[in-house]
Write a structure and sequence with these properties.
Layout lengths: L3 E6 L6 H7 L2 E3 L2 E4 L2 E4 L6 H9 L4 E3 L4 H14 L2 E5 L8 H8 L9 E3 L6 H16 L4 H10 L4 E6 L4 H5 L5 H9 L2 E8 L2 E9 L1 H17 L3 H5 L3 E7 L3 H14 L5 E5 L2 H7 L4 E7 L6
Parallel strand pairs: 1-2, 1-6, 6-7, 11-12
Antiparallel strand pairs: 3-4, 3-5, 8-9, 8-13, 9-10, 11-13
Length: about 290
């Protein structure tokens, strides 16, 4: 059986300590702040990122250079026979498709398997954990890639935003809409599914937005994800760009709404936070990938 390693990127929201505990390598993603390049968790902490964001800095994401990706692959192949590379979903960035093309190079062919899983942030962390379980069960890297890609639709996450400012900055809503929404205390709820982040609903006040997400999650679990729940194959997810205190309150609220279910909580990645801003809260679920018969 070949030794298989996992590499992801910092759009997973994994901290260096969490990555070390899971035994995965993380590619730091580049961000441009007022024209200067920073690397997540290397030269850019979450605290500095949100400080710059609140000060009105121009913040944008960028793809890693091919050489940065290849260098980390080479490092991984010093430790493992095969690698699963699990970057941000192709629906949110072109870096996944770029990596897939590079994996065809003779140096990496049949050694690096790029997984287009459709996920980011906590859902991606859950998928990494699924991959680790599949490795332990003895599946090959090629089989794991197929299993994870086949299950990319078996997930959803809702994200409520505290502010409309960053949707306005990103051109997703107009200045007039943002101003009116702020005046009326409108809090948008977004939906992330199969790598696509889109508008879901709007609420008057953040408390109502939180309730809407929990009620919607209950409905999803009672219908779409009912079979996975009955089999004990459903994981609840939480994601946050809020303070640790508010995040802890949110996780407790989810646990009380879904008694007996554990909650995997993580950071909304900085790549998502560029568009959502600070104070965001998310709830979602993910199904255990089906094994081939």
């Amino acid at each position: 059986m070949k030794n298989i390693g996992i590499i992801t990127d910092s759009h997973s929201g994994l901290t260096p300590r969490q990555a070390q505990e899971l035994g995965v390598l993380v590619l730091p993603m580049p961000f441009y702040i007022n024209g200067e390049c920073y690397y997540e968790n290397v030269t850019l902490s979450r605290e500095v990122f949100f400080e710059k964001l609140s000060q009105g800095a121009e913040v944008s994401t960028s793809q890693p250079s091919p050489e940065e990706v290849k260098a980390l692959w080479r490092k991984g192949l010093e430790q493992y026979d095969e690698l699963l590379y699990m970057p941000i979903s192709s629906g949110l960035s072109g870096s996944c498709m770029t990596a897939a093309a590079m994996a065809g190079d003779s140096e990496f062919n049949n050694k690096v398997f790029v997984v287009d899983h459709g996920r980011v942030s906590t859902p991606l962390v859950r998928t990494i954990m699924d991959a680790l379980e599949l490795i332990q069960e003895g599946y090959t890297a090629s089989q794991i890639k197929d299993i994870l890609e086949a299950s990319k639709n078996d997930m959803v996450i809702y994200i409520a935003l505290e502010t409309l400012e960053y949707l306005k900055k990103g051109g997703r809503i107009s200045t007039m809409t943002a101003a009116l929404g702020t005046l009326l205390n409108v809090k948008p709820v977004l939906k992330l599914e199969t790598g696509i982040l889109e508008s879901f609903q709007k609420c008057r006040g953040f408390k109502k937005a939180r309730k809407l997400m929990i009620d919607t999650m209950k409905k999803d679990i009672e219908t779409r994800f009912h079979d996975s729940l009955e089999k004990g194959e459903l994981s609840l997810l939480a994601a946050s760009s809020a303070s640790p205190e508010i995040t802890a309150e949110w996780v407790k609220e989810i646990e009380e709404a879904f008694p007996g279910m554990s909650v995997l909580s993580g950071n909304l990645s900085l790549g998502i936070c560029c568009h959502t801003g600070p104070g965001g809260l998310g709830i979602g679920c993910s199904c255990r990938p089906s094994r081939p018969e």
